[in-house]
Amino acid sequence: MDVTNFVTASEASSQAFKTATLLKSLTINALIMGENGVGKRTLASFILPNATAINGSNYEELLQAMESSNEIIITDIDNFPNIKLLIDTIKTNKVRVVATSKQSFSNEHLDDIFSVKFDIPPLSSREEDVQELIEVFVKDAVKLFGGENKFDIKDFKPDLSDNANSLRRQVMISYLLQDIDDKELMDIIENYLFDKLGSNSDYRNYLYLYEVPLIRAGLTKFKSQLQLSDRLGLNRNTLRKKISDNKEYLQGENNE
């Protein structure tokens, strides 16, 4: 996500941005913690806009960079295999560091180098940010795919499993598919299935690709299994069996 797209609609994100703004004017090291997709890298780049960003898993590259740079962003510092060595190298080379890590990451040597540590909460606890991010991602979709700046969020259930990463992907796909026609949809399914077909039970194995969205849409629209079975022309027990067979994809959809 672009640095300018770090949203501050919620109290939590607003406080995180205030901390980042303060750090921008100081010369101290900081550790930003949180889940993937919450904006850690965005804030790190805001604090050190001219710094090279290197993942903690790139052991040799990271150590070499600290010999030639006076400031650096270390993403996923928890991936570095020897934190003490890393801390000693930072001290020896007098490099200013802003690092990111998982929220649960802890190490006895962290306090030796990071004067400031702060968390960015997941999007699931930042409802105001979710709505604003959806608007940002819709604008991105308009630029990428064209069309009108419209997106129906009436029945939209944000996918926050990977925070902004999953939400952006979901918005992009939903925007692209909202005006899809039958042929385009069938082409997508055909391309998906082409390399997967090959056994003598493929019809049964892939029937869920039709049944699951049909049942989901029907239960959302008609609110009950009784109504849906009537509209689909199915016996209610048959519908119940199909819901049970596809329970992996229909959790919470057992409307009576």
Automatic annotation (TrEMBL):
Tell me the InterPro entries matching this sequence.
P-loop_NTPase
Q: Give the protein name, as stated in the record.
A: Fis family transcriptional regulator
Organism of this sequence? Sulfurimonas marina
Q: Cite the source lineage.
A: Bacteria, Pseudomonadati, Campylobacterota, Epsilonproteobacteria, Campylobacterales
